[in-house]
Predict the 3D structure of the following.
Amino acid sequence: MDARTKILQAALGLLAKGGAQELTQPRIAKAAGVRQSHLTYYFPTIHELLQAVAKYTLEAMVAETQVQQDPGRRAPSLLDAAIATAADKRRMRMVLGLVTTVDRESKMKPQMRAFLKEIRQGLTRLAQAGGLEGTTDQVAFLHAVVVGQGILQLARDNEEAREEARRILRMAVDFLRRKS
Amino acid sequence: MDARTKILQAALGLLAKGGAQELTQPRIAKAAGVRQSHLTYYFPTIHELLQAVAKYTLEAMVAETQVQQDPGRRAPSLLDAAIATAADKRRMRMVLGLVTTVDRESKMKPQMRAFLKEIRQGLTRLAQAGGLEGTTDQVAFLHAVVVGQGILQLARDNEEAREEARRILRMAVDFLRRKS
DNA sequence: AAAATACTGGTAATCCTACCAAAATGTTTG
DNA sequence: CAAACATTTTGGTAGGATTACCAGTATTTT
């Protein structure tokens, strides 16, 4: 595999497993099985590396969202997809790491906005497959509830939080359904 | 002022202003006006320091929420409070840093759960003052939407995101009002 | 005054980023 | 094919930042 890709994959794995503070050259190099000096060859500065990781992570998240509506797989219900996403610790760590990185590296904001649009396009299709109209605000609403519940669930990390997430997401989807 | 408190306040300021990667001994020491070696006196390891900062931050956030419903101040409407909170970058950086820290330091989870309960008690009172019933699920719902919109707003950081947050939070509050 | 506590100044060890010269590998061109 | 060239990889290092110590001094408490 491409060394560059190996590096980005390893970085993404570290980000999903341990959060943004894992993203140092030595750790990524070890995880990717390449030399540290190799990292600066592909990404001359740590800034560039972080930006590349952020971009790669964004793309990975878009791809994952699209898999959920892959025609090959039986489409999960909108509610189930929302519950699963909010409960996915890896994904939520990616969100945390991404937002942290973007907040720090303001150069990335335009890219973040573009990729959020993509995420929401995927969400729109999911919503429409789930019988919703899929208006901008409906999708934004759903997005916020999933992210919010996901973050709060990661912070608490117990069964109570998981149950709450199921109830709240059901409320949200029902609300949007009635509103359509 | 107590040196320990000075240290924690300075750390909180750095966290709110620049995110979790600002939390190093030299920077905190400089911001607090104490020696670096002083930090290890009060907090022998950086772990203990981070945990103390997290705890202090949690307490500060609870306190801020309670100020919003201080009888001395004219109570802001529930919607205005939600919009202001989601738009408050400092607060959202605290949330990001906190959740990141707690996710890493699992010892802190019980504390995080306890403080989330406190936050929600404050939110419950706000909701009731805003004419809602204030049930557990209503509050949890509102909480999730505010956190989710806040995070997404921090990530995008433009007027479009701010407008969206206003619309979405209005939707959420209206929904809860109708449901009461 | 004695004991406990708080603070100072300095340092050793580690980690991290950025750089570089040279070797290995791959690609193009005469 | 072979030489010239470009790209990738290696191994090592300099310099800066950070954490964790420690011995000693100042300050407060008892």
Remarks:
- The interface with chain B takes residues 18-21, 89, 93, 95-96, 98-100, 102-104, 106, 109, 112-113, 116, 137, 140-141, 143-149, 151-152, 154-158, 164, 167-168, 171-172, 175 of chain A (CB under 8 Å).
- Residues 24-26, 36-37, 39-40, 44-46 of chain A lie near DNA strand C (CB under 10 Å from a C1').
